């Protein structure tokens, strides 16, 4: 297995691991600003085409909040643990019906066990490549809300389970999630577009679920060697064009191979980290993927 620290100088390691509160606040606040702008657009121009457009674009913003929750779970978003825990939970996790405790506890096991049969995330991508019929069934489940309401059912049963990690709050987690949704609905009501909360929730239950599935597929499905502990062969980076990153890979989440090589690198340092690895020749044997359509051709067979 590649030991990445053997290839980095102390200065390079310090540079890629450095955390920035300015970067972190920009990512959090810009995501929420764009979310509110999209909901305002739907409220101001409630045409079916506008609503459909906002429904599709909101999914990427909701995934963006989940990505920032992921960063906070690694304590890499902000420089301080307190900000990672507070902002990561209240502005990123709870609005998307997540829980930072459940996510972080299970996700760290995913990192530790990727490339082994014990990876708790393995059920999300073990079956790939799949045939087209199977994949279409998954898409239908996502877009009709079946996947989303399984999440709701889990919350109502008293907690969340992520990658084997479980929320510690139980019923109080539900109260926090309802409270955060109520605050968002209240803000939208003050803006005179209260009904758009339903558009936010509909996206969370449908288009967001599909975007989250596509992200999971892109990261680990049908990789060169899922049983190899080297992240270069069990994890994938997609160097996608800007429009695809906006739709389904916000906040540099497409650089997943680099994240697994050194999880302490903040998401906003990952492009630079990839360039550094390329310069050292460490990615020469890694298959290149230049878009999510290429990933789908690789992971979904015709039929």
Structure notes:
The chain is globular. The chain is an all-alpha fold. It has a two-stranded parallel ribbon. A two-stranded antiparallel sheet has the order 2-3. The model has no long low-confidence stretch (mean pLDDT 93). It is 62% helix and 3% strand. The protein has one domain (4-301). Strand 2 and strand 3 form a beta hairpin. The chain contains 15 helices and four strands.
The residue fraction in helices comes out at 55-70%
Strand-residue fraction? Answer: under 5%
Quaternary: single chain
Structural class call reads: mainly alpha
Q: What is the residue-averaged pLDDT?
A: 93
Biggest pleated-sheet summary? 2 strands, parallel
Strand order of the largest sheet: 1-4
Keyword list:
two-stranded parallel ribbon, two-stranded antiparallel ribbon, 15 helices
């Amino acid at each position: 297995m590649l030991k990445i620290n053997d290839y980095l100088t102390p200065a390079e390691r310090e540079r890629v691991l450095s955390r920035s509160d300015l970067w972190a606040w920009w990512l959090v606040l810009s995501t929420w600003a764009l979310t509110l702008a999209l909901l305002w657009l739907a409220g101001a121009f409630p045409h079916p085409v506008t609503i459909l457009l906002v429904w599709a674009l909101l999914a990427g913003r909701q995934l963006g909040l989940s990505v920032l929750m992921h960063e906070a779970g690694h304590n890499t978003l902000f420089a301080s643990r307190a900000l990672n825990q507070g902002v990561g939970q209240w502005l990123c996790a709870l609005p998307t019906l997540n829980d930072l405790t459940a996510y972080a506890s299970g996700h760290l096991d995913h990192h530790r066990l990727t490339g082994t049969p014990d990876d708790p995330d393995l059920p999300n991508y073990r079956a790939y490549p799949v045939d087209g019929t199977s994949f279409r069934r998954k898409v239908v489940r996502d877009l009709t809300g079946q996947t989303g309401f399984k999440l709701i059912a889990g919350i109502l049963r008293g907690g969340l389970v992520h990658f084997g990690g479980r929320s510690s709050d139980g019923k109080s987690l539900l109260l926090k999630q309802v409270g955060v949704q109520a605050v968002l609905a209240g803000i939208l009501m003050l803006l005179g577009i209260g009904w758009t909360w339903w558009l936010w929730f509909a996206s969370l239950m449908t288009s967001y679920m599909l975007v989250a599935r596509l992200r999971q597929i892109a990261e680990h499905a049908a990789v060169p060697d899922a049983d190899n502990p080297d992240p270069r062969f069990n994890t994938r980076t997609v160097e996608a064009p800007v429009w695809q990153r906006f739709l389904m890979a916000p906040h540099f989440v497409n650089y997943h191979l680099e994240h697994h090589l050194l999880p302490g690198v903040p998401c906003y340092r990952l492009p630079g980290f990839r360039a550094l690895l390329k310069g050292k020749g460490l990615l020469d044997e890694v298959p290149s993927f230049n878009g999510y359509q290429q990933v789908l051709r690789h992971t979904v067979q015709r039929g």
